[in-house]
Amino acid sequence: MSDPRSFSRRLALLVAATLFMESLDATIIQTAAPAIARDFGVQPADVNTAMVAYLVAAGIAIPASAWLAARLGDRVVFLAAIVLFTVASIACASVESLALLIAARAVQGIGGALMIPVGRLAVLREIRPADVLDAVAFLTWPALLAPVIAPAIGGILSDTVGWRWIFLINAPIGILLLALGLLLVPRTVRQPDARLDGEGFALMAVALVAITSGAELLSGGSGPAIAASLALIALGVIAGWVAITRMRRRARPLLDWGMLRIPSFRAASISGGVYRLVITGAPFVFTLLFQVGFGWSATRAGLMVMLVFLGNVLIKPATSPLLRRFGFRTVLIAANLLGALTLATFVLVRADTPLFVVGLLLVCSGSLRSIGFSAYNTLPFLDVKGEDPRSVNTLVATLQQVAIALGIATGALLVRFGTAASGAVTGDEALGYSWAPGLAALLLVLPLGGAIRLPRDTGSGATRRRVSATHSPPQNP
Hints:
This protein is mostly helical. It has helices spanning about 10-25, 30-40, 45-60, 65-70, 75-95, 100-125, 130-160, 165-170, 170-185, 200-220, 225-245, 265-295, 300-325, 330-345, 355-380, 390-425, 430-445, 445-450, 460-465.
């Protein structure tokens, strides 16, 4: 058996670029919704269906990614996914009706869902434990960057060259990534006899579709829509529970839920899922606070929220050194605790608060979310020695997709609860936009508890200083 290898930075950057493209398209349509609605003669709220279609299709496709990669090989699936995503993007830009846009977005979601887990698997396959931290750092930044800059990019393109360009820009990017993929993605051994757990796939599809659709409906609905959304979420939870129960009894399940017995994997999946949900929804909460709560223009609010990205960038070179110096447990406790305190501080922010103070809080929020996100993204791969890397990667991708799909919905719900509570207590519903970040801070108590329960030596194999093979210490005679 060959020794584990160091990861390819060029391949990691390629996969990171595809993740950025996919993450950007998952949310960029939000700010373009009014322009799309005008062209198609529908209401802006109706365009949200195209966003839901993307998330639902991605949720269905992700659990099948490991089976496809085993049957066809990482290289074939990854390159085919880039082609599918690019072609679907061109279709999105060319359609003349909302129904066709929804269909094209669903195809685009399938392509994006296959690109990310398979690409990440190609990077992390047989990697040395000491390199996992650096490899995941390369793969993490797009997921932090895209949701923050997507509203600004979507708004600028819609107001200047037209909304169709939010999809057309993927064509040259996709062609470039395909060319680089042909050069960089290695071939892997195929398993033609690999079988798909059909029952598990069907049950997980029902669960993911119901939960995603229910969450999106809940975030913007009222009255009967809320009842329908709660029913969908309940259906999804039941289907998911049945799926997990059945899969745990199979020799080759679609998703190996037994990995949750590993403390680091469990913390990354459960605590990390809540953390990802909160930080995904936070920029949305900030945007509503500035635009609706403070009455700022969309441009001013968008530029301020982009300071979250500045915090991500400024702290990124320090994330891996921090984890190596203090360890995963200490860093995660600090990221959750300080992140919660930063969000809670926004309760005191008002429209006349100096912009410098607001900007500093946003930069701090971005820095802390970058640290926590990097740590949680690395945790699942630290202590899974002996496990099938495809199974590990697919379960991680599925759980992350659920958290991301619920993030924006959670942000909308926090705003709704905040405005309702402030209206009941103070008579001023507008004050609730300032309360929403405080509610988000309360949610971070859950991952904070998970971080505290982590063993002190969690991830020690990844945080140890690497010793070069060509400069190893001399052996005693």
